[in-house]
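User: Please predict the structure of the protein below. I'd like the answer in C-alpha cell form so I can feed it into my own downstream comparison script.

Assistant: Understood. Taking the following sequence of 676 residues as input:
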Amino acid sequence: MTEFVRGLSYERFLAEYWRRKPLFVKGGAHDLLGLTLSYEEADAIVEQVREQAPDRLAHDPGRIEFVKGADALSPRLARRAGELQRRLGWPRVTFDVSRTHAPGSIGCHFDYDDNFTLQQDGSKIWRIGSPTAVPETDRRRRVLEDPSLSGQFYLTDDYEEFVVEAGDLLYIPLFHPHWGTSTGRSLSLTMTCNLVTPLTELWPLLHEELSGHRAWWHPSPLPAAPDEQALADLLDVLADPASRRRVLARWQESRRSTVARHRPEPAPPRPEPVQVSPVTVDVTPIKPLFTGAAPAVDLAKAVLPGGTTTLLADLSAKRCLKRLLVLARDRAGACGDPRLAASVQAVVNGLTRLPHPALLAWCRTPEVTSWVRQAEREREAGYRRAPDTLLAHLTSFSLPELLRHEVPAPGVPLVAALSAPGQLAVMSAGRVIELPDTAGETVTVEVHGSHADVAGVRLPSTDLTGETAGPHVTVLPALAENGPRLLPPHSWYTAFHPAGRRFPQPPDGTRAEEFLETVAQAVTLIDKVWPPAADDIRASLSRLTPARTPLPETVPAFRGAAVVPATTPLETARHLCRAAAQTRYDTIADLYTLSEEPGAAVRPPSVETALPVSTLLRDTYTAVNEREFLRHHGEAPHALASLPERIRDALTALHDDGRLTPQGQALWTGLSELEP
C-alpha cells in the first residue's frame, strides 16, 4: 500500500476520509508537501499577483492576503503541484497561499474542491461544519461555477474544531462549510484537488464518439417532429459495447494525459448583482413599543414558572422584532429579484401596522425566532441564497396575521414558500392549504378583500386565518382550541432545525389522537400538582411533535417547538416541564450575557465529558425545573435518583469555572436557593 502521510496509506485515506470527513494529521504538512514556503516567498507571490493578476488576490490591507492559484505565479509551486498531481493521480492540483499579519479570517464558506491546509508558520483555529446544510441547488451552482455565487456560508451548529499549528495538515472535504481564523501572524498553503465532473471530462469524448456515427452527424428528420423512436435510435449508439469501450479508452487516456501535465486555470469574473429598489421600514406605528427604559428583571426570580415569564417573553419579542425588520430590509435589498423585494416591502408594511399584542405574540413563534437566527447567520457569513427562500418563508409565516388584521395592500403579489410539495402551511392559523397542481418552492398570493388567490386558487381569506376550513384546507390537530398544534411536515424544519431530516414527522389519524390525548392527560396532571407550570406550558409551547428518536426537547432558535415522548402521562409531563423551562432559559439567554466565556469547557464531577458553560447552565436550569415538578408530584422515576447530585455538582462547577457575569450570577443564585 502507498503511504500518503505518516501512518496513513493513500488507499485508507480514499476509503475512510476522501469526501466523507475531515482529517487532521499532526506534523503531516511536510509529509505531503515536501517543501516549506517562507514569508519572503509568500510576499513575493502577493506582490506579483497584485501587479499581474489582481483578480486572484483577496485581501484585508494590513491583516490578510489570500492568493488563489499561486502555482500559476510560482515555478516552484507549479513543479510541486505537477508532482503531486501525478502521485495522487488527480487531474488538477493547485496551490493557494494565505498570509496573515494579525488575527483574522476570510470568513466561513464552502468550496467545490477538496482542500489540504498545510500550515507553514503560526497557527489557525479551524471550524468545519456539516455539508448537509448546503442546499443541493447551491452545490450545483458552485460546481458549475455560477459567478453570482461566492460560496460564503454560515457555520453549522455541529462543527468540529481543530487547532492547526506549523507543520500540521488538515484535510477539508468539498461542500463542508469551514472557517479558519489565524491567532496572529501566520502562513499556510492550501493544496487543492480541483473538482472535475462527467460534464467536463466525458462530454467532449462523447461528442467525439457520436460524431463518428451517421445517425448523429446526419441531418435530423424534417419536417416531421422528433418522436420517441427517433430518440431511441440515437441513444442506442451508447448501448453498443464497442462504443462504450472506445469512450472508456479515450477517458482513461485523457485522464492520464491531464494528470501528467500541470496547467492552472483562471477563475471566471463575478458579475455585479441585479439592483432592486431598497425596502424601507416605517417605524412610526411601532415606536410606542420601544419608548421608555426596559423594565428591570431580577433573574434570581426567573428560575421557575410565573412571575417574570411574561415580562421576559415580551422583552425578547421586541428584540426579535427589531432584528427581523432590519434583516428583512437588508436581505430584500440585496436579493436581486424586484418581485421578491416588492413582496417583502408589503410584508414589512403589514407587520408594522399589526396591533401590538398580536405582533409580539407572532414574534414569539418558533418559526419567527428561528428565521431571525438563520438570517443572522447567513448575513454574518455573507451568504446569499438564490432563489431566496428565506424571504418567501417569512411571507408564509406572517400571512395569517396580515390577513386577520386586513393590512396587506390589495393586489400586491406576495411570494410565499411552500412547506412541502403542493402544500402551504400557515402555522399560526393551524392550517395547511392543499395546492396539488403547484410546482417549485414558492407560490404567489394576492389578497383581494374577502378572498385571496393562492397559486391561482381562489380561497376565502378566512381559510388562511384559521376561521374557516374549505375544501383546500387541512386543519392541524391541536391540544385545545388555542393550544399547541401538531407540526406538519415542513421544509423549514427539515432545512434549518439542527435535527434536519431526522426531525420527527407527525403522526396521523388515530396515532395523532392518541398522542394528543396523552399530552392532554400530562397537562392535566401538571395543572393538578403545579398550576404555574401548566400555565407556562400553554403560554410558551406552540408546536408539538412526538419523539421517536433521541432528540432534545427544544433547541434555542426554535423556541416554543417541543419534541416530547407520549409514553405515560407522567413521563410526558416531565418532558413538557423540561421543554417549557428550556424555552424560558433560551429567552433569558437571548436577552442577557450570562458568561464572559460561554464556550469555555467546564466539567462537573458527575459528568464524563466537559461541556460549554452555556450548555451546562441551560441543562442545570432545565434539571432544576424538572426536579421541582417531581417534588410537587411526589414521585420520581428511579432513573432520576441522581438528579439532585448532578444539579449540585453543576452549580459548583459553574460557580468555580463558569466566569458568570452579574446577570449569570443572579440566575445562579436563583438556582442555588432552590437547593433542598
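That's the full C-alpha cell string. The domain at 3-199 is CATH 2.60.120.650 (Jelly Rolls).
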